[in-house]
Amino acid sequence: MEVFGMAIITLVGEKLARPGVEFIYYGPAEPCRTCKLAGVCVGNLEPGRRYKILRVRSMPSHSCPLHEGKVRVVEVVEPSIEVAIEPRLAIAGSVIKLSFVDCSDPEKRDLFRPEGLFEGDSVKIIEILGDVECNGRTYKLVKVMRKKE
Asked: Has residue 135 been placed in a domain?
C-alpha cells in the first residue's frame, strides 16, 4: 500500500502500536476532553479518516484510561484507499473531486463508499486496478490518495 505526505505524530493503544496497522479515527472519546495528552493524541487526527502506522517511536508509553492502560507514540499517514468511480474519470495521475457512485449491493459498499474518504474530497488517482460491476453498470476500481487542501 502506498503512502505519501508527511507523517503525523499521535498516540495509539499499546496493542495496536505496530507498523502497518490501519485504523479509522472516529473522534475523541469523553476521557480525552480532559487529558493532558489530547493535543498530540487526538488533536492531530481528523475524524472519519483512515490512518496507517509507519513507525512506533522508542519512547516510554503513557497511561491512558481508554487503551487498557497504555499508549505509545507512533508516526501515521493517510494510506491509499481503493474506491470505485465512473470510468471516464479513471485516468492514472489525475486529480479529481470524489463523487461516490450509488451501489445497491451491500457486499460492495466498501468499494463504493470506503471509510476514510468523504464525498467531495480531492484525490489523486494512483493506479487503476480493474473493473467492478454494480446495478448493471461497470465502474473502475482505482487506488487513490487524498490531497490535502
From this structure: yes
